[in-house]
Amino acid sequence: MEKPESGPDLFKKTREFLEIFRKGEEFTQDLLKENERLRYKIVQLDEEFKALKKGMNDEGHLNELQETLKQLKEEKQALLDRFKEVEAENKDFAEKYVEVEEENNNLANLYVASYQLHSTLDFNEVLRILQEIVINLVGADRFAILILDEVMNELTAVVAEGVEEKRFRKIKVGDGVIGDVAKTGESYFQPDVEGFKPSHELDPIVCIPLKIKDRIIGILAVFSLLEQKSKKLNRVDYELFSMLAGHAATAIFSSKLYSVSERKLSTIQGFIDLLSGKGK
After folding, report:
1. 161, 196, 210, 271: which has the fewest C-beta neighbours closer than 10 Å?
2. 160 - beta bridge partners?
3. End-to-end alpha-carbon separation of the chain, Å?
4. Cβ(222)–Cβ(206) under 8 Å?
5. pLDDT confidence of 18, banded at 50, 70, 90?
6. Is 34 a member of any domain?
7. Containing domain of residue 194, as a range?
8. pTM
């Protein structure tokens, strides 16, 4: 049998045991604190993870919104471009509408004018009507109407507005712009009406041959336009000049032919009267 420990030894071991127990208790407390700290850290990390996840979701949503915004901007730009195209088309249509309206008005006026031209066979009356048409319908300020003498091969003014008729005496076919138009039968239009500075008084801005088919009857030469008239000739003006030239040529030719016939008839009638004794 072992010998029981004495009092001092037992007390020492008891203290050692209590010391170990106390250290164990402190270690346990430390573990509990560390566990609590770790639990708090886990909760904190979980919240941060959720916040991060939410942030990532918000960033994705932001990217989606940015992409949508980009698409909307592109659609807006496309609509603006289309709007500009439609606006330009509408402007073009409006200009064409105004041009067509102007052309219709000119055609109506030309119809009335041509009716007036062909309503008489009196040569002087035809020239008077033609003069009014050139002023009111064409808008000419200074102009002249010249008749071609096919025998002498020269042009003579029968109507002159704003210029002296004597300046047009015996313009030979082929001389200057007017003579060249009479020779070629091709219309002449000065391209820069507003900036045109003639080197000669008889340099026209518009020169139209009055002809029936290929036969030239005379020339319409315009030297300046009225102030209210546009400084630029457009397509309607060109068509107006061409149609007017045709009607004027027909009216002038018919009235001249009628005048010659009337003179011949009067001469023949006078001769007959003389032979029959009625002239006594």
Report:
1. 271
2. 144
3. 205
4. yes
5. low
6. no
7. 107-267
8. 0.59
